[in-house]
Amino acid sequence: MAPEIPHDQPSIESPLSGDRLDVLTSKVATSIEDDQRTRHLTTSYLPSRREVIGVLERLSWLLFPGFNGPREIDPGELKAHTRSLLSEIAGPLFHQIAGALRYAEAAEPITFGEHCPDCDERAREVVDSFLENLPTLRATLSLDVQAAYDGDPAAHHTDETIFCYPGIRALWMHRAAHELYKQRIPLIPRIIAEHAHELTGIDIHPGATIGESFFIDHGTGVVIGETTIIGNHCKVYQGVTLGARSFERDADGGLKRGMKRHPTLGNHVTVYAGTTILGGDTTIGDHCVIAGGVFLVRSIEAGHTVRGPKAGVRLNENRTDFK
Question: pTM for this structure?
Answer without folding.
Answer: 0.85
